[in-house]
Amino acid sequence: MSRIRQRYHETLAGYFSGKPLYLDKTSKDDSLNMRKIVELPWQLSEAGMYGKLIDMLTNLDFFLGLSKINRYELWRYWETIPKEKRDMVPSYKLAIAEWEKELGKSKRFELAINELGHFFVVSGEKDESGNLARIAYELALHLYPENDLIIAIRRNNLATAYYHAKKYSEAESLLKKALPVYLNNFKKSCEDSWIIQINLVTCNIRLGKVEKAEKIIRDTIEGTRFHLGPLHLVTLTALNNLAEILWYNGKFQEARETYEEAFAGRTAILGINHPLTNETRINLNFLIAAFINKPPETAMKNLLILLQNKGLNEHAENMKKLQDIL
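-> structure tokens emitted (326 positions)
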């Protein structure tokens, strides 16, 4: 970078630093100076003023303002900082202590913790994200009534963290508590309510409750087709999950037909090369090659191996008993 260009950005950084953060100091939430929030980090980054950039990115009001606009934009600014100076997690841990000192265990502090948890998902820090999801949930329990939507949202967030940590029972318990509140607030026309049901199905699969999962996902597909439409991405995700369950239950031909429907829908909506489309195609091809195109005895043997590899040992035993009876 030329010195002339660097001085140019330094000058603009100084200019925007001198502007007020709030246009109306009596109403913080609605009067953020968005021009400053958008411009200042860019100018600091271009000027190579990384220490001041980190101070800005960890400032409570800047953080909430920038994450409200775009969490990915926030991550992009961290990416401009050289690796040897990019101490993102330690910086935010210090910032949390400052935020709590300033705000106490208030709703605004809880919001900041929740937003930081989401940001850590974006930045690939899943362990830190899970810790913050737990803290935000515990704070929300003290700040809001039991059936408040905020608590349900925090439960859903924590359930996602538990799922990624393979704590499926804990995730299932939280999702069951969150779902009625979502349905009460969003009704069945909102995709979020159906996504929770799909996540419940996924937990049931991982816990080996495959028969129970099949009933829930069939009801979910019926509901999403009616309320969201047959080609909605949530409906297609539910179809993909149903195909997996049918496969695990030894219903190979029906699983194939369901995968084909999900594949056609995902291709139409997302395109042939999208990762979700590829996921469905790979599963479909494997199903056909290792199960449908094999003799029944070989297919069932392959199924038992697959279930054991997935950690579904109890379901594998049930399928083996059913095979012995037949």
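The chain has a mean pLDDT of 90.
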